[in-house]
Amino acid sequence: MNQIRLRMMMAVVACSLFAGSVLAADGRLRAANGIVFEEFRGYESWPAVAPSKPADGLKMVLGNPIMIESYRSGFPGNGSFVPDGAVLVKIAWSEKKSDTAPAPTNVPDALRRIQFMVKDSKRFPTTGGWGYAQFNYDSKTKTFSVFGSEASFVNACHDCHTRVKARDFVFTDFPTR
Ligand code: HEC
After folding, report:
1. How many angstroms separate the CA atoms of 29 and 113, rounded?
2. Residue 57, CB-side half-sphere exposure with 13 Å CA sphere
3. Cα separation, 48 vs 27, whole angstroms
């Protein structure tokens, strides 16, 4: 490959990094800290941990089988820590009034973003063993893009999650069902 082509390719990569939408060479969505969307294949059908209702939409937290087992065995009430391999996902939607429910009821509207936390103490030693990633969804083009142009985006995630350090940085409880 000659110098000019190499420089052009580097410019393309730099532009896509700047836009915050980073497609790896293999066409996968890769966050700036190396987490790839495909690592969480199948998350859509993981069990629900709990919904939450912030001012501006609806959210649902799901957990992979390792995370659900951790809740079953008493986390976070028993002071235990989440084992490596556990994953939590938070899906955020805008909300709308239900067209069908007889009483006023809000339901999910457009998908907005998906956030992940994956526990891997060797890979993410500086953030309590948790790797953070966020992928934003554009419902017009039906495509995801990477949130955070530099790996330091995780600092904001981790700073806030440090409020619940005593619960291994996890906010959400597993309510009775
Ligand atoms: C200002 C505080 C704050 C910041 C910043 C923040 N979070 Fe959270 N996060 C929360 C709260 C509070 C919850 C509990 C669920 C809810 O109320 O939405 C939560 C829940 C989660 C969950 C579900 C597991 C749990 O802890 O309950 C994931 C996954 C998650 N956040 C990922 C991220 C990622 C990735 C980032 C950064 C891109 C991030 N968060 C930034 C406050 C924050």
Report:
1. 14
2. 13
3. 30
The count of other CB atoms within 10 Å of the CB of residue 63 is 25
- Interval 101-155: pLDDT, tens: 999 999 999 999 999 999 999 999 999 999 999 999 999 999 999 999 999 999 9
pLDDT higher than threshold 80 for residue 1: no
**How far is the centre of ligand 1, averaged over its atoms, from the C-alpha of 126 (Å)?**
17
**Cβ(49) – ligand 1 distance below 6 Å:** no
Relative to the CA of 59, which ligand 1 atom is closest?
Answer: 18
Q: What amino acid is encoded at 132 in this protein? A: Y
CA dihedral 8, 9, 10, 11 (to 10 degrees): 50
